Amino acid sequence: MKSVISLMLIELKLLFREKESLFWSIIFPVGMMILFGFIFGSMNNGNFSVKVAIVDMDRTSVSKKFVEGFEMFDANSGQKDVPHMLNIVDVKDEKDADTLLERDKIKAVIEIPKGFSKRINAIISGEFIKFFKVKMNPANIVVKYDRSNAQTAQVVVDLVKKVTDRANEEILKSTNLYTKEEMPITLSELPVEAKEEFDYVSYLLPGVVVMAIMTTTMFGIAEDVTKLVEKEILKRMFVTPLTKGKYLLSKGMSAILISLIQLVVLFIVGIFIFDVRVTPNLLQFFLILFSGILCMFSLGFFAAAIGKTREGGSAVGNILMWPMMFFGTLFFPMSGKFLTTLSRVIPTTYFADGLRRTLGVYSMEIPIWQDVLWLAIWTLGFTIISAKYFRWVKR
């Protein structure tokens, strides 16, 4: 065990001694975090607009007045002192709006039902008590959105809630009766499993952590191991009491230790610079973290086995890294059927989304055990191929 710890400490020392390794392991991920955070962090402040369609099925002066409550937040309204959170798209009818939503041309549809004004006028005209005695259905506003765009749609849902609450308050005041037990206007939505205070930087942080672990572990293994094989250093090392099992254990432990250092540094940047707030489930978080590190570790040996040389291992690593970075939901959630399906066959998707789920950034449809299972399947696949093609001795 002493030899394993010694090799692990050597790996750690090399990280801080070699400027190139330090750059790609720590400085580059931190730079990416800061760059993306400042560029896209404005999403947290409502300085972006979501394309939506408003379908007024009632088409009355009352419903039109209600629609005006949303139009003031339209990017083209010219209204000052309010965040322009919406980009309202004109539609002919409900069918037209649903088609645009299905084609991902808009992110949400706000529907105002028929009979909206009739119910509101009944309350304002003094039939408030009768309204509740007969349990007349309230005017129900419906927000439709695609599950894959739940984070963006949450902005729309929150805004509809604000407009609805304001309208309810005015109606209740006009009746001189204040109650929150039953509201004249209610809101229905598809189940939103995203965290209510979702923000982009909170989404980004786990993705950058995965990117840092992937690049360091995968390239670290692919380049270092192939270099030792080419120079026949491993051949001489295995003449000593050091076994292949101990060598692998030392590499694995150093990968975990370096990953934890990256994790701590990135979380410090996220929390103190961008005010990221997380509510982690520590047991599940570390389960996903270690499952992901093990998967990236096996991926490194896979790159070394296929590449065979240091240059070849680096080339295979680059070929694997870029698709996993940009289609693995590290920086942005995937939308559309094709990209969503593609992301579901990439291991970094389960690594990054698993971390987000265990950090409380947002809830997801896939349970935690499926994230771990998919990471384990990828780890097993990479390990089997690596065991078949990797050579410890230069041939």
Return Rg in Å.
Answer: 27 Å
Largest sheet: 5 strands, mixed
* Distance linking N and C termini: 30 Å
Order of helices and strands: HHEHEHEHEHEHHHHHHHH
Q: Return the average pLDDT rounded to an integer.
A: 77
Structural class: alpha/beta
Shape: elongated
Q: Beta fraction of the residues?
A: 5-15%
* Number of helices in the DSSP assignment: 14
- Low-pLDDT residue intervals, each spanning 5 or more residues: 42-47, 191-197
Strand arrangement within the widest β-sheet reads: 2-1-3-4-5
Number of strands: 5
How many separate domains? 2
Helix percentage range: 55-70%
Characterization of the model:
The chain is α/β, with parallel strands linked by helices. The chain has two domains: 2-41 and 198-389, no CATH class; 48-189, abc type-2 transporter like fold, CATH 3.40.1710. Helices cover 64% and strands 7% of the residues. The chain has helices spanning 2-17, 19-40, 61-71, 94-102, 116-133, 150-174, 200-230, 233-237, 244-273, 282-307, 310-326, 337-343, 347-359, 368-389; strands at 50-56, 86-89, 108-112, 139-145, 185-189. A five-stranded mixed beta sheet has the order 2-1-3-4-5, sandwiched between helices. Strand 1, helix 3 and strand 2 (86-89) form a beta-alpha-beta unit.
Descriptors:
14 helices; 64% helix; abc type-2 transporter like fold; five-stranded mixed beta sheet; 395 residues; alpha/beta; 5 strands
